[in-house]
Amino acid sequence: MSCKVLLTEFAEEDMLSIRDYFLTSEQENRVERFYAQMAKVFQRIAMAPEAGSWPREFLDAGIQVYREVYSHPWRVFYQYENDTAEILLIADARRDLKTILRERRLTK
Length: 108
What we know:
Layout: E1 4-7, H1 9-24, H2 29-47, H3 56-60, E2 66-71, E3 74-81, E4 84-92, H4 97-107
Parallel strand pairs: 1-4
Antiparallel strand pairs: 2-3, 3-4
C-alpha cells in the first residue's frame, strides 16, 4: 500500500526550526543529514502508513488517531486517513511531548 504524504504548516515550521538550530549552532553539516533522514521517514510512511506506532502519550489518554515513526533522535507524528498521511509534528525525542504540545498551543 502506498499513500500521499503531506506536511502541515506546523511540520514545515518544525523542519525550518530544526534547520535553523543546526545553522546557528555551527552544525551546518547536520542539515543535509537531517533532510535525508526525514525523506527516508516520509518514504517509509508513504509505503506503510499503518505501520507507525500509536504514541504512548496519546494511548494513555485513550486517543488512537495519531501515529508516529521514530528515527533517532526524532519523533515524527502523523495522521493517516483516506490514503493520505499528514505529518503533524517533528520533535526531538528527548523533549517532553506534553511540553511541546503546550508550547505549540500557546504560540499558535
